[in-house]
Specification:
The complex is a heterodimer.
Chain A: E1 11-12, H1 16-22, E2 25-28, E3 35-36, E4 39-40, H2 44-53, E5 57-62, H3 69-78, E6 88-90, H4 91-101, E7 109-113, H5 116-124, E8 128-131, E9 154-159, H6 167-179, E10 184-187, E11 193-194, E12 202-203, H7 205-216, E13 221-222, H8 229-238, E14 245-249, H9 252-262, E15 265-269, E16 287-290, H10 292-300
Helix pairs in contact in A: 2-10, 4-5, 6-7
Chain B: H1 2-5, E1 13-17, H2 20-28, E2 32-35, E3 58-63, H3 71-83, E4 88-91, E5 97-98, E6 106-107, H4 109-120, E7 125-126, H5 133-142, E8 150-153, H6 156-165, E9 169-173, H7 180-184, E10 194-196, H8 201-207
Parallel strand pairs in B: 1-2, 1-3, 3-4, 4-7, 8-9, 9-10
Antiparallel strand pairs in B: 5-6
Helix pairs in contact in B: 3-4
The chains are: A alpha/beta, B alpha/beta.
InterPro entries (chain A): HAD-like_sf, HAD-SF_hydro_IIA, HAD_sf, PGP_euk
Enzyme class (chain A): hydrolase
Protein name (chain A): Phosphoglycolate phosphatase
């Protein structure tokens, strides 16, 4: 695997033409690359149009599980970008796709600690679910005699970003994982922070997953970046090999690692979470990088 | 006590993700603190122009068991730890679960601590078992020796480890979370000196 060899330091993107000619597909992370919160990042529409005009396939992969692919499609449309739903792979979709890939029984249920995106994708895939945002209103009272029941038919707990996160949900998820034989613990992602608004960083899905891990002492199965589940899924779907792909993202420990784990080329953009200046060291090996201002400019010169 | 012994500045504040017990002790020790159960009622509004502000004078975040835990508290704690220079991240303990009611186990402080730790990507200073902080404090306060002490507990990874780390004798009771199969399982690496069913066995055995 690439990591075993001596780390090659990242190189600044200069020859955009060479990069574009060397791959057939570009995978874009969304938060910090395409948009920040609900604001489009400068130069993105022209960049996407340019790549499409050169016959490149574009795919969008996001760890943000709050929306379904359909809802993301609407977000792209609102921002004036023409992107097909089939080109979008959110970690909410990944959770449902994973359950399908293991033939998760339709008579089993899924307990969701997360938002609408996960619920919608599970429903589309034909799975029964409980939980989600409405459990945010449920309270518990730790007093003598209080007993929390849980559904013994829950065969998987899916945990993702959840702004309605509370003690009830942690306990419910924990009871299922601990007491239902074979119950899966699936995490959409483990991002420490996320850009819910463009003004600042917010505690990410990694917090909710951390809480359930803290209570169950079990490691989850991660379906989002940097796990290669989504990469393998789309490579199979589009009939491409990963060496024909360039992964473009703003985070080293999810996007770049995702690309490296999958065997793709990797391009880091500085428009997202990372602040300029920063030092590129071993974890950015084999990545090329460009600043947000020059990504579009660089590629548009071609 | 940890804050006192480490000369925490009285001008700084403490943000608490936890319940009244922590707030009461901090106030008793003369520290300015806020957060606690009240913040369990606060929500965040994720609209385009919303900016989540936090007090730049918070010098320590203390995280413990919190049944009113929510996203607001997690975000507030994360911002303090990440953005206030030198802000301490203190955990009362990291127990995954506990018997908050006698009928079943419930998520422990370890849950809240893990949530904050994963968000800030930092490990906390743990003041509760199995950290030896409390023992060091006890020894200083009461002029004792650990070789003449017996730690009695029901949990291997907190109670027994605490006793072992500090050089006490250790007695595991099977009246709580640990069962005999748990103790004897091949994967268990923490072995107390002795075990028994419950503390009452001390009386029963003496009477024999």
């Amino acid at each position: 695997m690439a990591a075993a060899a001596a780390a090659v330091p990242a190189a600044k993107l200069e020859d955009a033409e060479a990069l574009i000619d060397s791959v057939e597909t570009f995978i874009f992370d969304c938060d910090g690359v395409i948009w920040k919160g609900d604001k489009l990042i400068d130069g993105v529409p022209e960049t996407l149009d340019l790549l499409r005009s050169k016959g490149k396939r574009l795919v969008f992969v996001t760890n943000n599980s709050t929306k379904s692919r359909k809802q993301y499609g609407k977000k792209f449309e609102t921002l004036g970008l023409s992107v097909n739903e089939e080109e979008i792979f959110a970690s909410s979709f990944a959770a449902a796709a994973y359950l399908q890939s293991i033939d998760f029984p339709k008579d089993k249920k899924v307990y969701v600690i997360g938002e609408e995106g996960i619920l919608k994708e599970l429903e589309l895939a034909g799975f029964q679910y409980l939980g989600g945002p409405t459990d945010g209103d449920k309270k518990i009272e730790l007093k003598p005699g209080f007993y929390m029941e849980h559904d013994k038919d829950v065969g998987a707990v899916v945990v993702g970003f959840d702004r309605y996160f509370n003690y009830y949900k942690v306990q419910y998820g924990t009871l299922c994982i601990r007491e239902n034989p074979g119950c899966l613990f699936i995490a959409t992602n483990r991002d420490a922070v996320t850009h819910l608004t463009d003004a600042q960083e917010w505690a990410g899905g990694g917090s909710m997953v951390g809480a359930v891990l803290g209570s169950t002492k079990q490691e989850p199965l991660v379906v989002g970046k940097p796990s290669t589940f989504m990469m393998d899924y789309l490579a199979k779907k589009f009939g491409i090999t990963t060496s024909q792909i360039c992964m473009v993202g703003d985070r080293l420990d999810t996007d770049v690692l995702f690309g490296q784990n999958g065997g793709c080329k990797t391009l880091l953009v500085l428009s997202g979470i990372l602040i300029i200046p920063f030092t590129l060291n071993s974890s950015a090996s084999s990545a090329e990088f460009a600043s947000a201002l020059t990504l579009a400019g660089c590629l548009l010169q071609v | 006590m940890f804050l006192k012994l480490n000369n925490f500045s009285p001008e700084k504040k403490v943000y608490v993700v936890g319940e009244d017990g922590i707030l009461d002790e901090l106030k008793l020790a003369g520290f300015e603190c806020f957060g606690g159960p009240e913040d369990g009622k606060k929500n965040i509004m994720l609209e385009a122009n919303f900016y989540f502000d936090h007090d730049k004078n918070v010098g320590a975040v203390v995280v413990g068991l919190d049944q009113y835990f929510n996203y607001y508290k997690m975000q507030y704690a994360s911002l303090c730890i990440r953005e206030n220079p030198g802000c301490l991240f203190i955990a009362t303990n990291r127990d995954p679960t506990g018997h908050m009611t006698s009928a079943q186990e419930w998520p422990g402080a370890g849950t809240m601590v893990a949530a904050v730790s994963c968000s800030v990507q930092k490990e906390p200073i743990v003041v509760g078992k199995p950290s030896s902080f409390l023992m060091d404090f006890l020894l200083k306060s009461f002029n004792l020796e650990t070789s003449r002490m017996c730690m009695v507990g029901d949990r291997l990874d907190t109670d027994i480890l605490f006793g072992q780390n500090t050089g006490c004798k250790t007695l595991l009771v099977l009246s709580g979370v640990t069962t005999l199969p748990d103790l004897q399982d091949a994967s268990n690496t923490i072995h107390p000196d002795l075990y028994t069913n419950s503390v009452h066995d001390l009386v029963k055995l003496l009477q024999q």
